[in-house]
């Protein structure tokens, strides 16, 4: 079931690209094919466990296209997108802000821990994601 609401299709793609991009950033902090697969499954579980509009946006439709870029360029794209995603929800679906922040941060943390624990590079990336989401708790 698609949740009809005030969030446009472009805004939904921003929410989705930012969330998937956050996981991709964490995964790239400790590169490797097998770790990436494990991290992707861990993040997918977090997305699937979300509720409401956040669940509908993150688990339906086409996946976002993340440009093939170096880590610095990807970070420069994803972190502002996370801030924008939170702004969109604050303006149009404020009851979903905590859900989105918790889901994306949870997915990033699960991805970081999926391959034998969180290393320093992953922890630093998760901290950047947390800050971009406005979650300094």
TrEMBL record:
Its domain of life reads Bacteria
Q: What is the protein name stated in its UniProt record?
A: Tellurite resistance protein TerB
Q: From which source organism is this entry?
A: Micromonospora pattaloongensis
């Amino acid at each position: 079931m698609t949740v009809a609401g005030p969030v446009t299709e472009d805004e939904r793609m921003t929410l989705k690209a930012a969330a998937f991009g956050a996981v991709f950033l964490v995964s790239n902090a400790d590169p490797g094919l097998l770790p990436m697969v494990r991290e992707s499954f861990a993040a997918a579980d977090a997305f699937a466990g979300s509720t409401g509009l956040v669940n509908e946006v993150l688990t339906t439709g086409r996946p976002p296209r993340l440009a093939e870029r170096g880590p610095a360029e990807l970070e420069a794209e994803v972190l502002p997108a996370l801030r924008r995603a939170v702004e969109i929800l604050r303006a149009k679906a404020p009851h979903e802000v905590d859900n989105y922040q918790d889901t994306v941060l949870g997915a990033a943390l699960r991805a970081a821990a999926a391959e034998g624990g969180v290393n320093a590079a992953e922890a630093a990336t998760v901290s950047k994601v947390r800050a971009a989401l406005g979650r300094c708790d």
